[in-house]
Amino acid sequence: MEGLKSRALHHLSHTHKVLALSSLHHFYEHLLQCCTSLTTLKLIHSSLSTRGFLLHTPHFLARLIILYSKLGDLHSARTLFDHRHHHHHGHTQAPNSFLCNTMLRAYANAGRSYEAIDLYIYMQRMGVGINNFTYPFVLKVCASELGAVFGKVVHGQVVRTGFGSDLFVEAALVDMYAKCGVIGDSHEVFDRMLIRDVVCWTAMITLYEQAERPLEALMLFRKMQEEGFLGDEITAISVASAVGQLGDGRMAISVHGYAVLNGFIGDVSVGNSIVGMYAKCGNVERARLVFDRMEERDGISWNSMLSGYTQNGRPTDALSLFNQMQASECDPNPVTALIMVSACSYLGSKHLGRKLHNFVISSKMDIDTTLRNAIMDMYMKCGDLDTAVEMFNNCEPGKRDVSSWNVLISGYGVHGHGKEALELFSRMQVEGVKPNDITFTSILSACSHVGLIDEGRKCFADMTKLSVRPEMKHYACMVDMLGRAGFLNEAFSLIKKIPSRPSDEVWGALLLACRIHGNTELGEIAANNLFQLEPEHTGYYVLMSNIYAASNKWKEVEMVRQNMKSRGLKKPAAFSVIEFGTEVHGFHTADQSSPYYREVYRKVESLAIEMKMVGYVPDLSCVLHDVEPEDKEHLLNYHSEKLAVAFGIMKMDQGMPIQVTKNLRVCSDCHWAFKFISSIYGRKIIVRDANRFHHFQGGRCSCGDYW
DNA sequence: CTAGGGTTAG
């Protein structure tokens, strides 16, 4: 009896112990799951260690190693790892595969490639079993840093050790080759796979999408479905991105349908990518619809929608959505700031730009060099050179980079301050900043805007000395510069010297020069190249027809117009904005939606009469429409930039400059008219067009009619 | 107990 009792007691206490132990394990597991700081982790670590759990429960050891590496303390992770297998007898003892894999994972996730490879080699040397779990980590490291050469070596080892047909390892190989840019090898691995799943199909689709080969990505997507795989959220994201690259609105709708039908749309990331896809296809309305219907929105959702508006030339919509964002529970981040800064640049509104800058400062978000450069650029594009320069000067030299210099140089360039641009260009070199390709486009276009031909030629010659290889965009700048200055033949022979096929920007620059100098023959050569290269680009048709119109070749004008019409091309809508106090007013061509339109219309009509009295003759060459001359003249009055300027003359105080931003190039008649207006009214008129700034004062323009 | 595919901005 007594014996039985004692045995029962013993049994009971044993169960108790086991129970306690298991709940302790759960307790620690819970602690580790909640642990987000190094200090807490160290406390848990020492507690686990005193209980002896680390010696007997490899699970906790692994958890600690992973957590340490996640929180950035790889040293502690490694110490733990080393300690474990030095423990028993004080001499090195081969660690087991599991632990090594864990440590490898820690290195791979932290991007510590060389330590990871070191460990991998150590494993091979010590004869630690390398298994199917090991390779994905090693291949990840190859993908991110070491490259395809090393990856190929590992691939060989995969095959030799007999893991060549493990689904996970194969998928990792596909991804590795893809990230190293060896698409052929990826495809080869993929083709040899006997069993495939969603993950490796998606990896293949993503690979083509990332390589900007959207058609092939979509073909794979179809093939995947034919083989009976539905795909999942991540597939949907990749496919949406591919369709966004194609810009095909109808396909966008069907991908959207795919996501809805399969229930992927509830996923925030899927929603985000659909929003971005629609925006890239030019369908902001649908983008907004999806955005509004999302159950859950994160920072990326807002940023996608905001940049969608900006990309589609709708900065005012971006700004009002930005206000909504601030009222929501989602805080703007530095990327948001970057998008909004570019919206303000586009709009050309000094006031809104400054307000945004103040917001960025007060929100205490991290202003890195990229964001600071964007803000400087915004000030330049809003006509506030002083603030941009001040920001540049107040910035510690360590926080400036080439782009900061580039922003200033190109900013001075678009304002027609060629000398200052050149000074900055040499100053940056004195201060030891190496000019890059963008520096040269900035300086060359600055020279071009002011007609500093010799300086421009010298900079172009200096490029190779400073080991920057001339690219197509630099040739385009040179053609632009030479062409504007009237050296059309020199420009044309430079084009012939370009080692590869001249791009549309190069021919476009020549075409523009031909319009300025009324050269029909060279213009036709340029245009014919352009119509082949970019048949959908409206601007080139418009330019060519302007050239014909200027030399009264109306039959040819009609031909170009018909050509445009048959391709279904329309002149993009012109849009001009003017800042008035804290408001921004926008005008389309012949706009009747503005609350002020009646008075503005009366003003442009009276302006036309006033100008004619002092010698203005309407320049009809920029009217494409097939109408009577009187009607053409009438149409000219309602150009968006004229409406905006008339609004400014009416509403703004005499001392205030009138600043207007137009989305396209300012038309030649408006340019001429503004000279008259600036002189009649004694006002400063500043117009920013798609190319540069025009400062009108006393009957002259800062561009010297050189634009 | 450990593993593979991802969207926004520039």
Q: Quote the average pLDDT.
A: 87
Low-confidence sequence ranges:
none
Tell me the β content. Answer: under 5%
Percentage of residues in helical conformation: 55-70%
Shape: elongated
Rg, Cα atoms, Å: 33 Å
How many strand segments?
Answer: 6
Number of helices: 37
Counting helices, strands and paired strands, the structural category is mainly alpha
Largest sheet: 6 strands, mixed
Which strands sit side by side, in order, in the main sheet?
Answer: 2-1-3-4-5-6
Terminal CA distance reads 111 Å
Pfam families: DYW_deaminase, E_motif, PPR, PPR_2
Family: Belongs to the PPR family. PCMP-H subfamily.
GO molecular function: RNA binding; zinc ion binding
Protein name: DYW domain-containing protein
Task: Describe this entry's structure for a reader.
The protein has 707 residues and is mainly alpha-helical. Among the domains are: 30-237, no CATH class; 490-572; 575-701, no CATH class. Strands 2-1-3-4-5-6 form a six-stranded mixed beta sheet, covered by helices on one side. β5 (693-697) and β6 form a beta hairpin. α17 (284-293) packs antiparallel against α18 (299-311). The model has no long low-confidence stretch (mean pLDDT 87). The chain binds one DNA strand of 10 nucleotides through α4, α6, α8, α10 and α12.
